[in-house]
Amino acid sequence: MKQSQWSSRLGYILAAAGSAVGLGAIWKFPYVTAANGGGAFLLVFLLFSFTLGVAVLMGETLLGSLTRRGVVGAFDELMGKRWRWVGTMGLLCSLLIFSFYSVVGGWTLGYTGMALAGSLQHGDGAALTARFNDYVGDPLWPVLTHLLFAALTWWFVQGGVQQGVERTLRWMMPALFIMILLLVAFGLTLPNAMAGVRHFLMPDFSKLGMSGVLDAMGLAFFSLSIGLGIHTTYGAYLPSSEGVGRSSLWVVLLASLIAVLAGLMIFPVLAATGIDPASGPGLTFMTMPAVFQQLPFGQGLAVVFFALLVVAALSSSISLLEHLQCFVCESLGWSRRAACSLITALVMAGGVPVSLSFGPWAQVTLFGKNIFELLDFITSNLMMPLFGLALTLLLGWQLGLRALPQGLAPHWRALLMGCWRWLAPLLIGGILVRGLL
Ligand code: PHE
Ligand code: NA
Fold it and tell me: Rounded to two decimals, what is the model's pTM?
């Protein structure tokens, strides 16, 4: 499978970071952190990202660059057919994530539309909360925007790696970063902003139970796009395994930085508007319009902000579709376009019940979770960590030194091996067991 290659190392880093940085940082991280009490959760999340996150991310990428194959092929080749189910689980999990990610991606499209129409420029915290609930509760609009979002993803990916992914991200990542910095700066001038910052940064470990620790680990997996084999697919398009350590660190650094900035962007607004930190998945959509209402050119800035969110979401959904299509092409010999179409059709169908679970189907629950919450929990807190556990164990104990990247200094080699053999498996395994019981 040599059909695709990155045109440059920067192109690769942009794509890998583009997959990681997205709604996870800007939409999910703030509400999950708020729900788990703030500072202590942030600390644990960062700890997981920089230890097992780096170890799994590097491992996944190396698998791809060593074999030049997608995740199932790579497991077949390096670990033996017995471990193929791990790769298959990663693919299934990608399909599930894509199904709900596309729904939230659709919200960003819907909010871009509302910003354009100017309907976010008035109303206080309570009104903005109601506006979000009305929007996602509607049986029609969020379904339509979900379909549109999935179609946009399809359009980019069927065009091929270099044209589709690299070009878009070259300008989008810096633009998003600058916009967030400006919003943080303004948010800090709001009345009561410091109360929000304290809530976000001051660790209070009494608020963080074992299920919070599991959430933090799941969020680390989700926000780095690891535990699915996406980085195996992207690694397969790399010319060699040289520099994989450095680029992995960059990805983790960027993703964590954006998450922390997103927290600093949203927590001060909570305190200033009285929007409930426990508002759940709507938090970003409820708070940010309140900021734009107070800014000069607020409506224009709101349009830019939500449009950048669309692009941030697209660069992540693109990686999901690229990954899934790579498998279908490799194993069934389909054309890229046909493979993309099949997967997109599945996701379009799968997202409908997810979208309805915020409205007409909110009462459909299992274990007290609705369809969206259930999918989110099963993917981030079960399947992705399980993949990471199997991957690090296999890398550390079965593949061993062969898996290490070329040109890595001896002390880094030892550290990475230690992470694969001991640290990552023990952490992931321990938290999975304790968090689930
Ligand atoms: N990491 C992405 C984000 O933060 C979400 C994602 C998860 C993308 C898994 C691909 C795979 O938005
Ligand atoms: Na992204």
Answer: 0.96
